[in-house]
Amino acid sequence: MSDSKRNRLVTRVLPHEDGLMVKEIIYGRLNLSRGMLRRMKQGGGVYLNGVRDFITRRVRTGDTIEVVFFDEPTALEPERIPLDIVYEDDFLIAVNKPAGIPVHPTGRYKDGTLANGLAYHFEKQGLETKVRLVHRLDKDTSGLILAAKEPYSLERLIKQRAKGILQREYLAVAEGKVSDDAGIITFPIGRVGDGIHRGATDDGRPARTEFQVLRRGGNWTLLRLALGTGRTHQIRVHMKAIGHPLVGDPLYGRPVQGLGRQALHAWCLRFAHPRTGAEVTLRVKLPDDIRILLKQENLLYV
User: Fold this and answer.
1) Which of 23, 92, 265, 278 is least enclosed, having the fewest CB within 10 Å?
2) Is 222 exposed, middle or buried (0-12, 13-18, 19+ CB in 10 A)?
């Protein structure tokens, strides 16, 4: 699909919308934000029956409304980084990120990130678009990352994330035996000190993590966890707060021989496709380093 088609949204006016203003349909049924409309001053626009028009224009049943979104090329340096692509269409891409790769450039990591690899991938497809990540993973957490190829899909997915429609599930190995079979952790999470550490603090931001025990071993527990919020280091902080830090966690636990990072893997994503509304479920297997770890404790489950 060309950039011109990918960055468009076309709909017809329904009978019950006869007489409404264009903006009432845009902000209502199409659920566009006013911020997205404001960005169209830099490019794009709203068209009624093929003619650029005011959003205060009243419509008739069967009229065609076309929204052309503003997009711009990425400022990231494209880098040829191998991508394990799990899902891709004209609007979205989901990749299985290995541990050790930052998601996007930061002060510490200027290049070599997943976002640089996506920029290269888009460039090879002939797309002049920004890299729009729907969510993040820590550098040493492996698993699924979802990105949008155009602004409308990003906005819809971010709204899904806020409403809990976009669901993220993780598999993790925790120290000790977690006694409860399932539970919800709701400690607020805030910054601790001046570095990257976070902790369960009274003045932190609300956070919610659901967990389910899959298997218990002699020293460790295999869990499935779901995020209700997306705080920095949320699962790692919450597991430490209940006395079961993740195995190998260099910040909140202790190193483990043979595993150079925390035993945390984003294994499942569920969401409604932002363009079609179809339910999408993506899953990826545990990486080899965690699988080897689980075999040692007779915990291998998936």
Assistant:
1) 278
2) buried
